[in-house]
Amino acid sequence: MNTTLPTILIVDDETANRHLLADLLKDECRILMAKDGASALQRVREENISLVLLDASMPEMDGYEVLRRLKADEKTADLSVIFVTGQTDEEDEERGLLLGAVDYIAKPIRPLLVKARVRNHLKFARQRELLEQLSMQDGLTGIANRRCFDQALERAWLHSKRSGDTLALAMIDVDHFKAYNDQYGHAAGDEALKQVAFVLSSAMKRPYDLAARYGGEEFVLLLPGIDQVHAVLEQLRTAIMALDIAHSQSTAADVLTISCGALVKSASDGVALAELLQRADAALYEAKHQGRNRVVIGQL
Ligand SMILES: [Mg+2]
Fold first, then answer.
1. Residues spanned by the domain of 257
2. What is the Cα–Cα distance from 34 to 12, expressed in whole angstroms?
């Protein structure tokens, strides 16, 4: 199965209709099918679906109700849904569109029209996914940005609260970065930040590890379930020195270095997220205060 094709979910209570639509679209999409509203909602939760073709008229849960439920759940609210129906009454069309369907196809199916509309909406869906990705990415370094980090941190904190697992949060500053820019110019400064970002993000091996640019020369790491954060950060500190980027204006070393402050905590201990951030920041301040190019693990 070619997984690079977009996935379409066809929902219709009549087998013949499902297969008619599937045959039409099978060359350009990966096809999933559901024969009723409940199983449609189930598939949407399990699969990464780009577009739903939804029969309006089905027994038990009709298409309108399926659409209403999709829109009510923030995880599925943005999913593109095309209504497919035999009812040509304008009021029904209006009802579907008002509920948030992106389009409306009337039965009997006209193959070329269906293909053209599906193609258009898949293109829109793809563009929206790209925009969503870009809005989470730092423009200079290509790693996660602060917005992405904030969302990931909140999710990780909620998970920690439920599971009792620890969460390591590290804040990282490039040492004497302003002096670096003044000495070598902003283009060289940007290049250095890209290299630092690459080292940090390459060290994120597990699915929920995250390295993000927090702003300017500040970076943050999120490492759920890691207790030995000191060893991890020491490795990174050494790896940044090994980049061997000359920095004649630094008091910490003759190459570019980083300072790291971190905290390891479980949300189930009743600590507020704001306090976690504040203490990690205080640990970073302490690392700088002690002479930079070092790792300080804070206490809370
Ligand atoms: Mg039907």
1. 146-297
2. 7
